[in-house]
Amino acid sequence: MSRTTRKSGVLALASALVAAAAGCSSGGGQDTVEVVVGYQSKTINTVTAGTLLRSRGFFEQQLAELGKQDGHRYKVVWQDYDAGAPITAQMLADKIDIGSMGDYPLLINGSRAQAAGGPGTRLVSVTGYNLLGALNSVVVPKDSPARTLADLKGKKVSSSVGSASDGTLVQALARAGVAEADIQKQNQQPAVGASALKAHSVDALAQFVAWPAAVVFAGDGRLLYDGAALGRPTLHGVVVRQKFGTAHPGVVRAFLRAQDTATRDLNQHPLAAARAVAEATGLPPEVVYLYNGPNGVATFATALDPRLLAALRADVPFLASVGVLKALDPDRFVDPSYLRDAGVSDGEPARITGTDPVCGRPVTDPALAGELWYEGEDATRPAADPTCLLRAVKAGGGKLRAAYVPDAATGTRWFADQDWWVRDGDAFKPFTTEDGARAYLAAHPSAAALTYRQALDAS
Question: Which end of the chain has fewer surrounding CB within 10 Å, N or C?
């Protein structure tokens, strides 16, 4: 924490102690408040509180306005991490003031902060969420014999223990009749696990966004399990060290206003936002856009949605049962007052709109709408439904960077050429996993499985 130097004497010492507790330092005769923000640059559904927010400078702009009002100078220190656990460790050590992370790490953060005594930490906003859990997935090598999660029994699975995706893995395995002890879990950071999967030193990778799609897009794997199949909301959010928040409530409000601006910017200009995040992280823009594009896997908003808070409360007993959380008072941990006092309200999430140029009709149903991104074009082309998207790809029209289409059952947006396709009468239905396609075929005996190429030809 920063220190303040004043004139010598007892008054100077007292002033310095007060300033230190508040996180201030002197600079050119003007108090400087240092704000340390912990974020995860490659975790796409936190970009409005991290990567995009940083690249756009919205927080610094808000702090400059705050400084005009209170006379302080503000300095933001951005610290990038691969997961939420190290951010929590730094917050408990009073070295990070504001952080963003997934739902399970958030709950662990709150629990450990409460156990440590003192003011603790507070969940103050949401960044990105998916009401079915599609932000977490399991990927296997393309040549893997595994067809369902049950096939991972006895296999090596890379996962970041304590992460949101790890929680999805454990619960999904249990639903598939596989105990956590029945797999050889490798506790690895996402990048390490992705490399291990590519090298075939692990049999599967269980991770949060954007790692599953990055692995698939690179040609190093295929989706085995879509977290949406679990049907449990998953989210990422912003947590504040309450000692800092009490000393500097205006800074927290400034952060939330800046996050709101970043959220609106992303929802209004998703393609530009994807490019900005890709440039800052090195991730392929096609992967970033899969998640943050209109009708994307992640919905971006700041509100502490009651559905998401209910999901967090329901997760507490599970985390306690697996031994990663001792106790947590959710009512003390969740604090909507900062968001309320910041005076922000969410705008509309990004949606695919316009007229399908191939089928010649308006795009109205988000459960069917797709998108095509061609090289050299500043805007994507909408597709009214999966059949229209296939026809557009078949018709050509340039070098296709990516085609996105929602899963027929879960709505999870995925790469069309990596989907499992089914033809049912005149309709073509995409599924993110073979398991999902098989379930549909079992319920619809007249339907037929197709490869992507066969679906294109038949469209």
Answer: N
